[in-house]
Each structure stands twice: as structure tokens, then as C-alpha cells.
Amino acid sequence: MSEVKIGALCWNQYTDWSSLLEAGRRADRLGYDSLWTWDHLYPIVGSADGPIFEGWLTLTAWAGATSRIRLGLMVGANTFREPAMTAKLATTLDHVSGGRTVLGIGAAWFETEHTAYGLPFGDGAPERLRWLGEALPILRGMLDGTAPTASGPRYAAKAVRNDPPPVQRHLPILIGGGGEKVTLKLVALHADMHDVGGDLATVKRKDDILREHCAMVGRDFNTIERTHGLGVVVIRDSREEARKVVAAIFEHNGHARMWQGQPVGTPEDVAEQLAPFVEIGRSHLVGGFPAPYDEESMTRLITDVKPLLRK
């Protein structure tokens, strides 16, 4: 069985700043391997008419308030920024954090926030994926210090320098998404890490297709670290209590409709649900923690569930 890593995705919506900052500190203290937040400008769960904090600045504040945990967006919206600027942001965060940055990136999907902020959304997912395909060589080139030049229909760069370079010799790029024809091919071509959610059958299918893309481009499938988004984690001594807590969490987040199939229950329940993903190699498990950042669940995922998964 692969080494088990645990990440915390702390939602940056429907919260106040002190609570969000403390959630990141708590994840670091508890021994989480990675800490993530969203790159969105409007809430994406529950009502979009609510508060949310910006992702890159949240990561930067967490970098100054933590000491060991890796930091990234799950995932960055490629449409929000020119890729050369995104690479510069990631590089600066790598210095602020002492070499703990992951550059998470995806094609973006939430049209409402793009329209409100006047950001380009393209004519559909295929065009946004083409934009992502253009952006990735610029991102990789800047992170690696090759001064990339680009003149593709969406993005342009001219021998763009990234000085100083990242602290990490190879700052990892994580691509999120499960599109089988394009996204997973981009993962095979460019990503160090890949994140996808869904049930076990879905994740197995994505892995099989990613393996095929890797074979086609001459990439070793096993060189890609595969993370798995768990959804909202709530752990209690009884299933009934856990269900009450998760219902209150979704209500707090813009009166959202409660998601089904979440890792909610006793430590044994949650471990039983997660173990099959570890067994297929999706062993970096990223638990979702919405405001108000349930301290008991964050703690018990590490202290109670992780040891069961190692067994």
C-alpha cells in the first residue's frame, strides 16, 4: 500500500479572516501534509451571494503562519491571470513559504464570477482547455528558468525571465479535473500531480485513461502523484451526531444543499470509505473543511483515521 498523505482543503467562503487563518495553522500543527483553498471570487457552494476571500493572498498569509505544510490552490483558475503572472505568484509564494508551494491549475468553470468581474470565459469548456494547454508550457518554462517565448492565439510571452527562481529545484504543477480526452492528456504531458474527486469506479476509470495517455506520450504513469478530493469530512463517535454536524455546516455555507456520499461518520466508517482509494494509489487524500472548520473532524482525520488507513 502506498504511503498515506492527508491534505486539508479549507473553504475560503462564508467565513471570517481570523477563522480561516487559524484553520491553516491548525492543519500545520496537526501534521497535515498539504493545505489548500479555492481560487474563486464568488462562493461556489450554496448561494453565490456571500463572502469569500481571495486564494493567493490566503496562501501567502498561511505561508507566514505555518512552518512545514505544503500550500496550493485546489485549483487555480487559468482564466483569471496571464500564465507568466501565475508563475511569478507561485515563485514568490515559494520564497515566502521556504519552498512549500504547489502550483495548482485548471481550466475554470464558474461563469457567474467571470461575468461579474469582467474576466474572459471563452465560448465553452473546449476553448478554456485550449487556453490551459497554451498556458502550461509557459508556466513550466518560467518555473524551470528557461525564459519561454509564446505566441499562441491566447497567450504571448517573449523570453520571459523568472528571477529569482523558485526555492524548489522543481516546483510541482498540479492539474485538477477529469476530462478524459483533453484534461487527462494535459496531465500526462505537463503535471507532477493530478487531483480528481468522485466515487471509486469513477476514479479508477480516470486512472486507467490517464495511464493510457501516459503510454501514448511516453510518460511513466507512476511519476504523477495522484491526490483525491474527499468532499466534506465530519467525524464523531456516532453516525447520528456526525450527520447533525454536517447538516449544520452546509446550512452555514449559504444554505447549501447537503452533498451525498461524504466521508461522514465514525472513524471506522470514514476509514472504510477511504481505504479503497489508497489501495489503487490515490493515497494523497484531501479532506474538505468548510467554515466553521470543525476542529474535532480535522483532528480525528489525522489521529484516528490515518492510523487505520496505514494498517
Notable features of this structure?
311 residues, TIM Barrel, 8-stranded parallel β-barrel, two-stranded antiparallel sheet, 10 helices
List the helices and strands and how they pair.
Blueprint: E1 5-10, H1 17-30, E2 34-37, H2 55-65, E3 70-73, E4 76-77, H3 83-97, E5 101-106, H4 111-117, H5 125-144, E6 150-151, E7 156-157, E8 173-176, H6 183-190, E9 193-196, H7 200-217, E10 225-232, E11 234-235, H8 239-252, E12 264-265, H9 267-279, E13 284-289, H10 295-310
Parallel strand pairs: 1-2, 1-13, 2-3, 3-5, 4-5, 5-8, 8-9, 9-10, 10-13, 11-12
Antiparallel strand pairs: 6-7
Helix pairs in contact: 1-2, 1-10, 2-3, 3-5, 6-7, 9-10
How would you explain this protein's 3D organization?
- The protein has 311 residues and is an alpha/beta fold.
- It has a single domain, classed as Alpha-Beta Barrel (TIM Barrel), CATH 3.20.20.
- The protein contains 10 helices and 13 strands.
- It has an 8-stranded parallel barrel with strand order 1-2-3-5-8-9-10-13, surrounded by 7 helices.
- Helix 2 links the parallel strand 2 and strand 3.
- Helix 9 crosses helix 10.
- The protein is globular.
- The mean pLDDT is 97.
Tell me the radius of gyration. Answer: 19 Å
Q: How far apart are the termini? A: 9 Å
Number of domains: 1
Class in CATH? Alpha Beta
CATH architect. name: Alpha-Beta Barrel
Q: pLDDT under 50 segments (min length 5)?
A: none
Shape: globular
In short:
The protein is an alpha/beta fold and 311 residues long. It has a single domain (5-310), classed as TIM Barrel.
